[in-house]
Automatic annotation (TrEMBL):
This is Acetylxylan esterase. InterPro entries: AB_hydrolase_fold, AXE1_dom, CE7. Pfam families: AXE1. PANTHER family: CEPHALOSPORIN-C DEACETYLASE. Residues 1-323 form the Acetyl xylan esterase domain.
Amino acid sequence: MPMFDLAPEALEAYLPEIDEPADFDSFWSSTLDEARAVDIDVRLERVETGLELVETYDVTFAGFGGHPVRGWLTRPAGRTGPLPAVVQFVGYGGGRGLPVEHVVWAAAGYVHLLMDTRGQGSRSGAGGDTPDPVGSGPAVPGFLTRGILDPAEHYYRRVFTDGVRAVDAVRAVEGVDPERVTTYGGSQGGGIALAVAGLVPDLRAVMADVPFLCHFRRATQITDSMPYGEITQYMAVHRDQIEQVFRTLSYLDGVSFARRANAPSLFSVALMDTTCPPSTVYAAFNNYGARAGELAKDIVVYPYNMHEGGQAHQLTRQIAWLAGRS
């Protein structure tokens, strides 16, 4: 796959105008107020994994609508804290998997909460355990077009709210320093991490790898890869609903959340990525922290990679980067 998007120097300067609704902030403020009216109800059940250096818990907390959201909470064995925490979100179609898959951040000295993604977990990996009890109107297979005609009904309104509640949940765990919480994820997980960064004003840091869910309109114009292709398929059938679709997505765009973030950030981008095109990632990165003034941010570029990005190379960078901020 050749480089297909803007030239690297154009990407670095890319600051597109996006459709941001006037009531974006009030929409999300009321959404979170409603979610937080329900007790977070964090429940931890110790899980035996056979690993002596970490402790693992099956965690459940109340997400959007009070719906139970599952996850794994892993921490260094014998450490009482207060410890910094990393809240991680998973990629599209994946689930929380098995606890032995998620030990790196605990081994690095953090309390690590991996949030299961509602309704997902059967496309890749070792499975998920959180249902999405909310239905939707006609939709393309996948998740992007569930509730596509109304932002209040859209699937990602629920997921982003779950993500904010995951931060609330980890802050309620004994031994966690609530002032040192980082959001983290790749692809869909990176998009959720950005959304939470725009909705939670006091995070310690944000790490978003090849983030999905950014600059929807451009994504549908320059790639036919899935999952953005779900939106394209829907609009090819529902020809009279195109602007309504983009209006809904304007409440969910990672670029708007990035503008509102105020924590230091580390991004990554792959210049041959047709799943999350580079210009959509740079749209979020270049706008990141725009409302906060001067803000530390960096992006790692992988020129000859596709959506896999940096993988373990990036994780190695993240461990060192976060150690200097937590």
